[in-house]
Amino acid sequence: MAQHKPVKTHTFRNGKYHISEDAALKGFCDVPPWSEHSMCIESGNTLSALDTAIHEAMHADGIPDRYLHRKDGTSDTSRISRLMWRLGWRRT
């Protein structure tokens, strides 16, 4: 299989984001009023990396913290990530 080509930018509801990957970070996403429009996702081909990508993409699309972050520190995107992982979504 072919190696995936890194995605450097993507346009979401909040604008065009510059995307970077880092194995050491769980992820972050600038949201308005920040003007940087930067996003960092976890690198790798793991369930955690998939969850981070979905989570930060939802922030870039305008979903506020209160809908994604639970009081116990977990994320509501983990259920979506687990389903996608079970369906076979992987990086190539």
Would you kindly provide a written description of the structure presented here, covering whatever features stand out?
The longest helix is centred in the middle third of the chain and has 14 residues, at 47-60. The model has no long low-confidence stretch (mean pLDDT 89). With 92 residues, the chain is an alpha+beta fold. Strand 3 (27-29) and strand 4 (38-41) form a beta hairpin. 30% of the residues lie in helices and 20% in strands. It has helices at 47-60, 65-68, 77-86; strands at residues 9-12, 15-21, 27-29, 38-41. It has a four-stranded mixed beta sheet, covered by helices on one side. The chain has three helices and four strands, in the order ββββααα. The chain has one domain (9-86). 17% of the residues are buried.
Radius of gyration: 13 Å
Q: How are the strands of the biggest sheet laid out side by side?
A: 1-2-4-3
> How many individual domains?
1
Gross geometry: globular
Q: What is the number of helices?
A: 3
Strand content: 15-25%
- Percent in helix: 25-40%
Give the strand tally: 4
> Average pLDDT across residues?
89
The biggest beta sheet reads: 4 strands, mixed
The structure class reads alpha+beta
Instruction: List SSEs in N-to-C order.
Output: EEEEHHH
Distance between the termini: 6 Å
User: Low-confidence stretches at least 5 residues in length (pLDDT < 50)?
Assistant: none
